[in-house]
């Protein structure tokens, strides 16, 4: 081999040595046994109780489902407890999932928004420590608040994501904002020795539950299109007028259209019904509990929504979806496949009102005060064509 080859080998050896050294520190010195989304490390011994920290909205929970399924497969005899929100508890009571138990998080900065109560926090952590968890998994965020929270649970082993300024856990993966959330959580599960068993959440309605009468009405067998116009961040909302135009077009095609949302989204839904001006379009916003929402979404031919919980839930239930996304959110939350899930992305990089860069908001830059939609550029016709295509696909699947 010539001198050039020897130089290249020395260069790679030096690089690999530094790389392995860094990874060894992050991995707590443990051995890699395979590759999943990232390195899969050797499993911990004698794990019978696992706790997973994941607050946030419905979508945030759904993003963590594949990781929890992987953990259950890696530790088949273990019970898995989720530390989540009341909405998470309601959803998991209405669906079959890898989760055995849900404990509702107390209000705590950076973990669950709300007024903290020191006595309630102390009681919560005392209860958690009494359970003697073997493995605690943090898939909540970068770890500035969630890693110290996780450490207070008293688990024998800890894994999770970590920014440079966050408390360290036994095994960590660097938190980089722009990463697909389900894949990020799967990479964390790999730290605990769990190989992926699925790349997407898979949920099913609990068997034996009778759906509400409003869901049971099949409208004479007409295809059902469910729309959700809301989103926690108002900038992620497609304008109401676009939803109404789409609803009217679907109704003209003979589809039934149900507009869903929680009680805070009632006005949005009612405005769509008013503008669509069709008896085929109705609002169920604020009228369904979690079980009713699950039943309705499962009965839909297609669900149309912004980057929000109901669209992610529909995808987890195996229902075709059309999503309206800001381009940055596609990276974090977009469906992986396109046979059943279509994405329409708005390639906006600045706030429409003030021009501030929105690609770093929530990561390295503060949010401006404007709520102008960053997905308004998505056209109705392109969304409508995908709805029609997916309705035809769903109808064909049901007929076969």
Short account of what is shown:
The chain has 400 residues and is α/β, with parallel strands linked by helices.
Polypeptide structure, described:
The protein folds into two domains: 31-201, 3-Layer(aba) Sandwich (Rossmann fold), CATH 3.40.50.2000; 219-399, 3-Layer(aba) Sandwich (Rossmann fold). Helix content is 38%, strand content 17%. It contains 13 helices and 16 strands. It has helices at 3-26, 58-74, 86-94, 118-130, 146-151, 181-191, 213-216, 240-252, 266-276, 290-299, 309-316, 327-333, 380-399, and strands spanning 32-35, 39-41, 49-53, 79-84, 95-96, 101-104, 135-138, 157-162, 171-174, 204-205, 224-228, 256-259, 281-283, 302-306, 321-326, 341-346. It has a six-stranded parallel beta sheet with strand order 6-4-3-7-8-9. Strands 13-12-11-14-15-16 form a six-stranded parallel beta sheet, sandwiched between helices. A two-stranded antiparallel sheet has the order 1-2. Helix 11 (309-316) links the parallel strand 14 and strand 15.
What is the CATH fold-level name of the largest domain?
Rossmann fold
Based on CA atoms alone, the radius of gyration comes out at 23 Å
In total, how many domains does the architecture comprise?
Answer: 2
- What would the average pLDDT be, to the nearest integer? 92
Short descriptors:
13 helices, single chain, Rossmann fold, disordered N terminus, 2 domains, alpha/beta, six-stranded parallel beta sheet, 400 residues
Q: What is the strand and helix layout of this fold?
A:
Blueprint: H1 3-26, E1 32-35, E2 39-41, E3 49-53, H2 58-74, E4 79-84, H3 86-94, E5 95-96, E6 101-104, H4 118-130, E7 135-138, H5 146-151, E8 157-162, E9 171-174, H6 181-191, E10 204-205, H7 213-216, E11 224-228, H8 240-252, E12 256-259, H9 266-276, E13 281-283, H10 290-299, E14 302-306, H11 309-316, E15 321-326, H12 327-333, E16 341-346, H13 380-399
Parallel strand pairs: 3-4, 3-7, 4-6, 7-8, 8-9, 11-12, 11-14, 12-13, 14-15, 15-16
Antiparallel strand pairs: 1-2, 5-10
């Amino acid at each position: 081999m010539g001198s050039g080859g020897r130089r290249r080998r020395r260069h790679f050896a030096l690089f690999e040595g530094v790389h392995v050294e860094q990874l060894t520190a992050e991995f707590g010195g443990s051995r890699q046994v395979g590759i999943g989304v990232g390195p899969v490390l050797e499993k911990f011994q004698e794990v019978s109780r696992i706790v997973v920290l994941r607050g946030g909205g419905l979508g945030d929970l759904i993003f963590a489902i594949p990781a929890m399924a992987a953990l259950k497969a890696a530790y088949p005899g273990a019970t898995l407890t989720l530390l989540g929100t009341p909405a998470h508890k309601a959803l998991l009571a209405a669906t079959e999932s890898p989760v055995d138990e849900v404990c509702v998080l107390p209000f705590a900065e950076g973990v669950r928004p709300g007024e903290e109560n020191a006595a309630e926090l102390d009681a919560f952590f005392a209860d958690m420590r009494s359970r003697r968890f073997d493995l605690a998994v943090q898939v909540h965020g970068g770890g500035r608040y969630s890693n110290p929270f996780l450490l207070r649970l008293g688990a024998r082993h800890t894994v999770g994501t970590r920014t440079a300024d966050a408390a360290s856990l036994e095994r960590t993966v660097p938190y980089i904002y722009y990463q697909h959330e389900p894949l990020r959580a799967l990479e964390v599960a790999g730290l605990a020795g769990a190989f992926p068993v699925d790349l997407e959440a898979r949920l099913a309605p609990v068997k034996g539950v009778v759906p509400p009468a409003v869901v049971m009405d099949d409208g004479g067998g007409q295809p059902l299109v469910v729309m959700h116009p809301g989103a926690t961040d108002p900038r992620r909302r497609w304008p109401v007028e676009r939803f109404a135009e789409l609803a009217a077009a679907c109704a003209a095609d003979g589809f039934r259209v149900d507009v869903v949302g929680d009680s805070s989204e009632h006005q949005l839904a009612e405005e769509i019904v008013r503008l669509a001006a069709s008896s085929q379009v109705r609002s169920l916003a604020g009228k369904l509990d979690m079980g009713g929402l699950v039943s309705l979404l499962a009965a839909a031919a297609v669900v149309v929504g912004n980057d929000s919980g109901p669209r992610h839930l529909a995808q987890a239930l195996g229902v075709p979806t059309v999503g309206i996304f800001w381009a940055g959110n596609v990276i974090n939350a977009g469906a992986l496949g396109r046979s059943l899930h279509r994405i329409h992305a708005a390639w906006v990089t600045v706030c429409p009102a003030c021009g501030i860069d929105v690609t770093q908001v929530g990561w390295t830059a503060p949010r401006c005060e404007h709520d102008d939609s960053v997905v308004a550029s998505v056209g109705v016709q392109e969304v409508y064509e995908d709805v029609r295509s997916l309705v035809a696909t769903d109808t064909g699947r049901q007929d076969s």
